[in-house]
Write a structure and sequence with these properties.
The protein has one domain: Hypothetical protein af1432. Helix content is 72%, strand content 0%. With 183 residues, the protein is mainly alpha-helical. Helix 1 packs parallel to helix 3, helix 3 crosses helix 6 and helix 3 crosses helix 8.
Length: 183
């Protein structure tokens, strides 16, 4: 990723608006597991969380666009070539870096995902933490059996996201520790 250097504010603002429209349209029939809210709520929540960790406006627009689109390829089978045509290289690359497209059983897929994400820069890793910060509370609340495994996977993931914003890492660590203390 070129880390957003050289993009104009207005261009990135339009990219974010385009990301919102595409995500809402593409995910229109999807619901969040357990809460059955429109799936777009998760995307917007994760994107909003990013504001806590990213202060540069260009990087924030790029990161929020990535988070809003992060499940479009894996969950909606949205063609990568269209994503590449519609969005700047940083957003396209970020969405692909966030997409869990690995094959195998769950253990293999999560290991490969951790390895892929460990190679990413601070923005993608921080985006991934925001995704988990959005997902984890509803899984803990509504799927206690699944939560045991998901929290363990999240702890392993956190250990591999060494470039992420330290405040984001700390917030996710605290959420994990609160959950584990409640057992």
């Amino acid at each position: 990723m070129s880390e957003g250097i050289g993009y104009k504010y207005e261009y990135l603002q339009q990219q974010l608006a385009d990301a919102v429209l595409l995500a809402v349209t593409t995910h229109q029939h999807h619901r969040r597991k357990y809460t059955f809210e429109p799936y777009a709520f998760h995307l917007f929540e994760a994107a909003q969380m990013l504001k806590k960790y990213v202060t540069d406006i260009e990087m924030l627009f790029i990161g929020q666009s990535i988070l809003i689109l992060h499940d479009i390829v894996e969950d909606c089978q949205y063609p990568e070539f269209l994503l590449k045509q519609q969005f700047c290289p940083d957003i396209h690359a970020g969405v692909m870096a966030m997409s869990d497209l690995e094959d195998g059983n769950r253990e293999t897929r999560t290991r490969l995902s951790r390895e892929r994400l460990a190679k990413q820069g601070w923005l993608i890793q921080t985006c991934k933490i925001c995704d988990r910060l959005s997902n984890l509370p509803s899984i803990i609340k509504h799927a206690p059996t699944r939560a045991l495994n998901y929290v363990q996977e999240t702890r392993l993931l956190l250990d591999s996201l060494l470039c992420a914003d330290p405040r984001a890492r700390n917030d996710l660590r605290e959420l994990i520790e609160e959950y584990e203390a409640s057992l």
